[in-house]
Specification:
- There is one protein chain.
- The chain is of the alpha/beta class.
- 45% of the residues lie in helices and 14% in strands.
- The protein has a 5-stranded parallel beta sheet with strand order 2-1-3-4-5, with helices on both faces.
Amino acid sequence: MNRTGSRSSGRPTLTEVALQAGVSPITASRVLRGVATVAPELVTRVQEAAARLGYVTNPAARALASAQGHSVVVLVPSLSNHLFIEPLEAIHEVLHPRGLEVLIGNYHYDPAEEEKLIRNYLAYQPRGLLLTGFDRTDAARQLLAASGVPRVHMMELDPAGATPSVGFSQHAAGAAAARHLLAAGRKRLG
């Protein structure tokens, strides 16, 4: 089949996959999204047509069509801090088998950079956001509130208990460390 490359990029389209497989675009879409109720012979035809054409699904288009993407955004202040490596691995381990992609943003402890990442990632209509801590710019807070995207804050607990969070209280941890050092006879704490 001659390709028309109707996208401005020249990449194959879902319509071309459907035509080559002899199915409707809706059926091709359902196959490529992994909908289980499509007949096995149609699944095979669509998958073979997609492979022949080199078709790659467009998650941005899917997010626009469904008003929800298939990703969860995780924003951390540093990828070089080992404190974040295990949580990132655990997040991937839980979400990937459920068909969710993990998008990681590193804002280098810069609140303005975190705000920029939040703005950029919200354009992809993620299923959720995992944010580190509670300190962010007013504009970032407004973006998050207006987005309606579910979010969980990591590494710290909301003292008021109003925001979903996992982690520990920095204040309680500091107080426990100070009590331990004082009980051990230390008099000059830094």
